Amino acid sequence: MISKVISQEKISQVEDFLDKYDKIVIVTHVSPDGDAIGSALGLCHYLTDLGNDVTVIVPNSFPNFLRWLKGAKDILIYEKYAEFANKLIAEADLIFCLDFNILKRIGDMGLSVEASKAKKVLIDHHPDPANFCDVTISYPQISSTSELIFRLICRMGDFEQMSKESADAIYTGMMTDTGGFSYNSNNPEIYYIIGELLKKGINKDQIYSNVYHSYTEDRFRMMGYALSEKMKVFHDCKSALITLTKEEQQRFKAQKGDTEGFANLPLNIKDIVFSAFMREDEGMIKLSFRSQGDFPCNTFSSQYFNGGGHLNAAGGEFFGSMQDAIDRFEKALPKFIEVFDKIN
Ligand code: 5GP
Ligand code: MN
Fold it and tell me: Which of 115, 59, 60, 62 is nearest to 87 (CA)?
């Protein structure tokens, strides 16, 4: 048995909505990651099996290493089909908002979601959720939204009905949001849940391979280049920074998602506890932060890079040149020197 986590009141409210409504849209955040897609498809399969009409809509495209998941090819990309997506969002009677805590995180789609008369349910694990849904299921102590989807389905008494495809998606989200169970993953209940998912027939070794052993040769060479040529280490601050300009990404024919995981790489170095990755994107620099121990990536990001996220994994944006972003980062680091000194 696992602890309840989600309050009974919230479970009952979701059950009530599911009794009343069957035109359902599931939305998740920009640049959807494994947990965004995993939680969305995990919930989508479950709701579809119950007989609902369900569409998953994401703001923009998602990485290739998630395309093997059943239902991935039916995910609607807002950026490409905004008109159709807006119609579905407007006509839905229930919208699930997964893996984000504020409408800004879903880009232009946020306006349509806000305007829709549908009932809205937030399921998320980021701190400080905004109040834009009728039911807010937010538990930052839980390491993935996908785990919350598992907990929700079980609490509604439907573990038996959960399909292998739903279990595949949920496991993928749990695995990717914990770096293959290497951080944020000390809660014993995670492993109980994995046991339950294995009973559904998932092949966890195959899922690991599908997600992590999926590099193209170009992507692998770009990683080598980033590590040998573009990584700066700040030993005094136990930190490191990797940067890649647009031109460098183009040189390696980088596709969407090809730099996923680069932010984690410097943490492989002994004594490095904080790692940043800056990628030049359309009109801005996209940042990813990762840390070990108590270094607060989310505080660092919100103070200096207009972002947020979790303690050990956060992201942000910088509008300006790569060099200005680097300067800002290097100036900010020493302000945290006392925090770095306390971490072993
Ligand atoms: P990633 O580095 O994988 O893009 O994001 C890591 C975490 O930071 C995710 O949980 C994500 O929700 C959060 N995050 C990423 N980018 C942003 C951003 O621009 N703003 C905010 N508030 N959070 C972000
Ligand atoms: Mn997540």
Answer: 115
